[in-house]
Amino acid sequence: MIDSMRSTAALTAFVGGMLVLAACGSQQAESSDGDATPTADPPAGLVPDDYAGRYRATLTVLSSPAHGPQLCSFVMESYPPQCEGPDVAGWDWAVVQHESAGGTSWGTYDVVGTFDDNVFTLTEPPVHRRSNAPTAPDERKPISPCPEPTDGWPIPDASKATPEDMDRIGSAARTVDGFAGVWIGWLIPDAEITERSSTDPDNFVVNVLTAGDITATETAVRQVWGGKLCVASAHHTERELRQIADQVVDTPGMTSVGTDEIRGKVTIGVWVAYEALWQQLAAEHGADIIELTGLLRPIDRHE
Predict the structure, then answer these.
(1) 55 touches 114 (CB < 8 A)
(2) How far apart are CA 23 and CA 45, in angstroms?
(3) Last residue of a domain, one of 122, 148, 173
(4) CA-CA distance, 95 to 3, in Å (whole number)?
(5) Is the CB of residue 285 less than 8 Å from the CB of residue 248?
(6) What is Dmax (Cα atoms) for the chain?
(7) Is the predicted pLDDT of residue 6 greater than 70, yes or no?
(8) CB distance 225 to 164 below 8 Å
(9) Do 62 and 189 fall within a single domain?
(10) How far apart are CA 229 and CA 208, in angstroms?
(11) Long-range contacts formed by 95-100: CB under 8 A, 24+ apart
């Protein structure tokens, strides 16, 4: 057996790289010309295109010899750091706590202001935040889409429930058309997940999702994995979600894009999540797939 450090690394890669859960239902229909069109109202939290109020965010602001103060959706790991984003109007480094090096100034702040023509204009003094302040922990993934058996999750063959066997699950599942993803569902509290406990097959169930034949997928996976297992249905394959993610990389104002297979979504980060943009993407790719999230949160909306 591989040593515990390698086992944990393999398990981490296994968990982090492939996440899928069946969507509860599709919200798209085919239009007369064959294009997918949304049939549901836009999700809550989107911004009307005529919104003219203020926004709030907690972001890094950075200026360098190449540009003035700008908002950062992410910061490159260099020294001094680097980033690009919308210009910030009304910024004065002389009145805020910040760091400086090599002609670059930066810091993390709560900012409030308006956003127009890719310029963020301050309407309130920024509030400095410690850049190393703790962040909220990631939401724990669901244990499984399958109901727990009455007698508990079985381990049919403990001799095939090692970390090496786990490494083979993805390849085995992909031999059946429709592979949608795989993730670990922990049966122990987060505090008890250690290098040793993470390799104990009693402590987790492996979840495999497919948009194809469930029985065929389970048969294929059982050839290599003898531990606790759930095989369930998904609406969208891993390939479908990744293809859509590749197609939306040029979305205006995009700050990030990724796939959240556990919910069957393509997640798109933008500076402002406008309703019209979501409608456009939903019409092109499906209302049940596209999730649009804005870094700038409107604060003057009246529901």
Answers:
(1) yes
(2) 20
(3) 122
(4) 53
(5) yes
(6) 67
(7) no
(8) no
(9) no
(10) 8
(11) 95/125, 96/126, 96/128, 97/128, 98/128
CA atoms within 13 A on the CB side of 114: 8
C-alpha span between 237 and 49 (Å, rounded): 32
Number of domains in the chain: 2
Residue 287 within a domain: yes
5 vs 167 pLDDT, higher one: 167
Are both 60 and 3 inside the same structural domain?
no
Check: CB of residue 128 under 8 Å from CB of residue 107.
yes
Domain identity same for 185 and 279: yes
The verdict on 162 and 300 lying in the same domain is yes
Residue 131: left if φ>0, alpha if ψ -120 to 50, beta else—which one? alpha
Same domain, 245 and 296: yes
- Show Cβ contacts of residue 293 under 8 Å, excluding neighbours closer than 6 positions: 45, 267, 268, 269, 270, 273
Q: What is the pLDDT of residue 1?
A: 34
pLDDT of residue 138: 60
Residue 21, token pair as written in the block: 């859960």
DSSP 162: S
Residues 85 and 159 in one domain: no
Joined together, the tokens standing for residue 278 give: 């979501």
- Contact (CB, 8 A) for 238 and 179: yes
* Cα–Cα distance list, 246 to 132, 180, 237, 268 (Å): 32, 17, 14, 11
pLDDT at 292: 95
Domain that holds residue 199: 1-51+137-303
Q: With respect to residue 130, please indicate whether it lies within any of the assigned structural domains.
A: no
Average pLDDT over all residues of the chain: 85
What type of residue sits at position 288? D
d(CA 1, CA 134): 36
Structure confidence by residue, pLDDT tens digits, 63-84: 999 999 999 998 998 899 999 8
Q: Which of 122, 152, 179 is the last residue of a domain?
A: 122
Chain-centre distance of CA 271, in angstroms? 16
User: What is residue 40's predicted lDDT score, i.e. its pLDDT?
Assistant: 55
